[in-house]
Amino acid sequence: MLTEENNRKAAGGTEHAGTEKTPLPASSPADKERVPDKGTRSASVKKLVRAVVFLAGLAVMLNWISAVFRYKNSDKRFMPFFEQEADYDVLFFGTSHVIDAVLPLELWDEYGIASYNFGGYGMHLPATCWLIENVLDYTTPKLIMIDCSNLSSEVMSNTTVRQAHNTWDAFPLTRNKLRAFQDLLDPKDLLEFTWKFSIYHDRWEELTWEDFEPVYSIERGAVPQREVAVPADFIPISDSRKTKDNTAGARYLRRAIELCQSRGIEVLLTYLPFPAPAYRQKEANLAADIAAEYGVRYVNFLKTEGIVNYHTDCNDAASHLNLSGARKITSWLGRYMLENYGISDHRGEEAYAAWDKDYTQHVLDDQAWIPIQKTLDTYLMLLADKNIGCCIYVSEGSRLLQDSRTLQLLSNVTVHASPSKLADAAGNGTEYFLFADNRSGRLWEGVGTGAFVNAETPAAQVRYEVREDGRHTLFVNSVEYPVGDSASSADIQIIVFDSRDGSLIDTASFVVDRASLSLKATRSKGSTAEVSSD
Fold first, then answer.
1. What is the DSSP string of 329-368?
2. C-alpha gyration radius of the chain
3. Which of 47, 155, 214, 479 suits a disulfide with 124, CB 3.0-4.6 Å?
4. Could you give the CA distance from residue 24 to residue 41 in angstroms, rounded to a whole number?
5. Going by DSSP bridges, is the β-strand pair 143-147/90-93 parallel, antiparallel, or unpaired?
6. Which residues make Cβ contacts (< 8 Å) with residue 437, sequence separation at least 6?
7. Triad 280, 286, 291: Cα angle to 5°
8. How many C-beta atoms lie closer than 10 Å to residue 242's C-beta?
């Protein structure tokens, strides 16, 4: 029995009644750590949750601070792209030549093409290629236009780090964006592009209300330029002279074309116009070979005559187009795209309703620049607009009629046709009058004594007369304006109206500085004033 009882105890069997139960040994401290009680586990979970919430809040706060502190140039240009749900027909890529020369809202109004301008300041083709790849994460256009400026360059990113921020800051941090940075940037610059707070944290004193409530541009990436410069000399070179074909620019242009073609997107290569030096013209000549290699269309505007006039359409001497030149290039490209790519006209479609509203504001913004101009050359350049009508009077004997550049700017005012009597006035030194309504495409001229214009368009009624006694009369929409007054020293007097509805935009007089060796006409202190009504 003893043996049997011992066997039961060894096996952990049931003890006999009346025997004393042996207590279990106490848990060791190590056991308590390995198996915490419910209270300890609950406290640990709470600490973990608090830590996670704190880190998440910190991340949100730092993200918000980064968004406030960073420069808004990129946001202002590109955030509207992300806000549109409907697809874009055309996307434009390249350097600042593209930013200045292609106006999506003008393209919309004239052709109903929905487009976006992704040109970049100081942009080089490797960065352009990566930008295309990132943009295609958000939309699939029918056509991508790539301008080939900087084809000879070995530079990977933008010319400066600040310019690179202006290109990339608005784009969300994605795998494609990280791949782009790893390929394009110096490793020492990676941190500031992936965690913007590291570079923008010290902008405390620069902050303005727009950093908290940024105002985005309606221009769909374009930045119209409103100066007019005396252009540099343009000396064409032979088509056979070409830049090297093994540059980073050439390699990444090919890569960009292949990327687009792999996704069924058509490609148009361009070289936009400016008074290009020889090395730039060599780039344009090589671009023709690359276009032929891939079977894509190419427009070399350096060799396409009759579109822009460097004497009226350059914003600076040797690089960028102004608003007058941009309107001409945009109109030409729109017609070319409709003829060659079958781009749809979206005017009237509900998904694109915002475009009409933004175009109306775009027109008002353009017109607002006219009354604040102080120099005649810029003033005349801004009148080259289909939404502008004007009456221009040049006094007898004015030096303006002897200046070739001024005569070209006066001819440029009329969008659809060139004045035919301006040369006569210049040759005879007689007074000259022009009435142009750019929306209707009509113009009238008067030269010398006895000139008479009596004209009407949907926007304006104009009556101009020089009587035998020398008295001048000018009525525009029943309001009389004094021109040719013998007491006035003005060389040129201008009345500007909106060609859509006839509303007055500005009246101005300009006087030539007769003490200056170079011709310079500046605005008089007072504008021509309304005198009486019919």
1. HHHHHHHHHHHHH-----TT-GGGHHHHHHHHHHHHHHHH
2. 35
3. 155
4. 25
5. parallel
6. 389, 443, 457, 459, 460, 499
7. 125
8. 19
| Residue appearing with tokens 């007898």 | 396
Give per-residue pLDDT as tens, 289-343: 999 999 999 999 999 999 999 999 999 998 899 999 999 999 999 999 999 999 9
What's the helix, strand, coil split of the chain in %, to 5?
A: 40, 15, 45
The helix/strand/coil state of 80 is: helix
Q: Residue holding tokens 């952990």?
A: 12
- At 26 the pLDDT is 53
Helix (H) or strand (E) holding 462: strand 461-466
Question: What amino acid occupies position 158?
Answer: N
* Residue 287, H or E segment: helix 278-294
SS3 197: helix
Contact indicator for 275, 302 with CB cutoff of 8 Å:
no
CA distance 133 to 418: 44
Q: How many residues does the chain have?
A: 534
Cβ atoms of residues 107 and 359 within 8 Å: no
Bridge partner list, 267: 144
- Contact call for residues 180 and 133 (beta carbons, < 8 A): yes
Instruction: Say yes or no to pLDDT of 60 above 80.
Output: no
Terminal Cα distance for the chain, rounded:
140
CA distances 104 to 87, 139, 523, Å, are 14, 16, 32
| Half-sphere exposure at residue 132, Cβ-oriented, CA atoms within 13 angstroms | 32
CA atoms within 13 A on the CB side of 415: 22
Residue among 471, 473, 475, 450 at smallest CA distance from 462: 475
Tokens of 316: 């600076």
> What does DSSP say about strands 479-480 and 532-533: parallel, antiparallel, or unpaired?
antiparallel
**Which residues partner with 270 through β-bridges?**
147, 299
